[in-house]
Specification:
Elements (H helix, E strand, L loop, with lengths): L1 E14 L2 E6 L2 E7 L6 H13 L3 E2 L5 E3 L1 H4 L2 E6 L21 H17 L3 E4 L7 E15 L5
Parallel strand pairs: 3-6, 6-7
Antiparallel strand pairs: 1-2, 1-3, 1-8, 4-5
Helix pairs in contact: 1-3
Length: 149
């Protein structure tokens, strides 16, 4: 699994100009599922995301996690994180997991995050969404379970 983690002041997801999810301060995560990923990948990434110390403490150092600040999480599935554009001009998506299995793993990841006691909002799997992100810092961290598991 691959995640683009952004520290955000606020973010929201719209479909057809209707807001379907919104959070205040916290993290916005774009999550991609690779073929062969499993629950261990989701467990690893969610633990890393919610405990990643990228929020400032009283001294202005990035020393606090999402759990520490009681922030919210907006998790949006994004299969294009596994795009391969090395050849030609049109990206291929053969590394991305098939939709039904990817949906199941994203739902599992959301459950894991909610089990941490966090407010978790989501996009709509497979929908054409407009994701509005106020990236604060900016702080953007790339995480990948493939290199660890």
């Amino acid at each position: 699994m691959r995640a683009v983690v952004q520290r955000t002041r606020s973010s929201q997801v719209k479909i057809d100009d209707e807001i379907i999810a919104a959070i205040g301060p916290g993290l916005t995560v774009l999550l991609g599922v690779r073929q062969g990923d499993g629950e261990k990948d989701a467990d690893y990434l969610i633990d890393k995301i919610v405990n990643l110390r990228i929020f400032e403490d009283d001294q202005g150092k990035m020393n606090r996690s999402l759990v520490d600040i009681g922030g919210a999480l907006l998790l949006v599935s994004q299969f294009t994180l596994y795009a391969d554009a090395r050849k030609g001009r049109r990206p291929g998506f053969s590394d991305a997991e098939e939709p039904q299995r990817a949906r199941s793993l994203v739902e599992y990841a959301v459950k894991c995050a909610r089990d941490c006691g966090l407010q978790v909002e989501t996009g709509q799997f497979g929908a054409n969404m407009l994701v509005l992100i106020e990236n604060q810092g900016p702080v953007t961290i790339l995480l990948d379970s493939e290199r660890i598991i």
